[in-house]
Amino acid sequence: MKKFLLALTAAAAFSGSAMAADMAPRTYTKAAPPAPVASWTGCYISGGGGYGLFRVNRDERVNGIATIANTTAGGDGWLGTGGGGCDYQFNNRWVIGAFADGTFSDIKGDASTRVFGVGDAAVGKLTNDWSWAAGARVGYLVTPSVLTYFDAGYTQGHFKTQGLNSIFLPQGTTGVQIPGQTFDGFFVGSGIEYAFDWMPGLFIRSEGRAAYYSRKDVSPICVTAGTACAGAGVPGVIQAGSVDTDSRRPIVYTAKTELVYRFNWGGPAVAKY
Questions:
Q1: Is residue 228 a contact partner of residue 169, using CB atoms and an 8 Å limit?
Q2: What band does 65 get if pLDDT is binned at 50, 70 and 90?
């Protein structure tokens, strides 16, 4: 009997050892953390180019009496731009920032005006040659590398001196110029910015912007007496007994694409999208 019990005990021990040997050890896998992405917090510089359009709403008065009202002149052309700013990323998806930029341009078109003493009608090239802006933006990250945003702020824009040629007189050049003007106003815009994954810190941005400037008066000047005008250098006095005044209010629309290089302050941020 004892020999039988010992045989059963040995068989049970052998079977348990074999089953334990056949069982694979348990393994525990920890979930991988989210991949880090570049933070949008930091300062940057930018540069690029684009295209612009303007519309100038005009009124004209002679001796204080309106002779032309609610007319418009338009133009188009290229532009180059550069600037810089700083952004701050918060709550994972939101970005706020401040910036300033400057633009040189050749946005131009013909604009006619009524000038007494030079055949009563003249035309000249109206050109927006530079502007600058400073403002703020707020954006939302659609993905860790794609930012959509709106911006707004203050702007100044300059229109060059406009030389006038007569429409009716055979000599062409009138000797009259409308001096250059700098206008103050505000802008609103929207855009999209993309972070390149193959070069840290490099982004590309496309933006559309509209600048609305305040109305401003200007008087033509006879710069070459003895042509079609007299009284050289006296603003507004082109013909004896009449004083001309132009009132202008420009609106400038631009579309531009820029490369942006960002100097990160915050280092890598963990994406939680």
A1: yes
A2: low
By C-alpha distance, which of 217, 146, 147, 219 is closest to 177? 219
Rounded Cα distance, 168 and 126, in Å:
20
Q: Map out the domains of the chain as residue ranges.
A: 37-266
pLDDT digits (tens, 9 = 90+) for 74-111: 999 999 999 999 999 999 899 999 999 999 999 999 88
Residue 65: exposure state from Cβ atoms within 10 A (0-12, 13-18, ≥19): exposed
CATH 2.40.160.20 fits 37-266, yes or no: yes
What single letter denotes the amino acid at residue 16? G
**Among candidate residues 212, 233, 102, 201, the one with its CA nearest the CA of residue 152:** 212
The radius of gyration computed from the CA coordinates of the chain, to the nearest angstrom, equals 35
26-33: long-range contacts, CB 8 A cutoff, minimum separation 24? 33/270
Q: Strand 221-222 to strand 216-218: parallel, antiparallel, or no bridges (unpaired)? A: unpaired
pLDDT at position 271 is 44
Q: Virtual CA dihedral for 41, 144, 134, 181, nearest 10 degrees?
A: 150
Q: Which of 66, 232, 239, 52 is nearest to 159 (CA)?
A: 52
pLDDT digits (tens, 9 = 90+) for 113-153: 777 666 567 788 999 999 999 999 999 999 999 999 999 99
Instruction: Extract the tokens encoding 175.
Output: 């000797």
Tokens 């609106």 belong to: 251
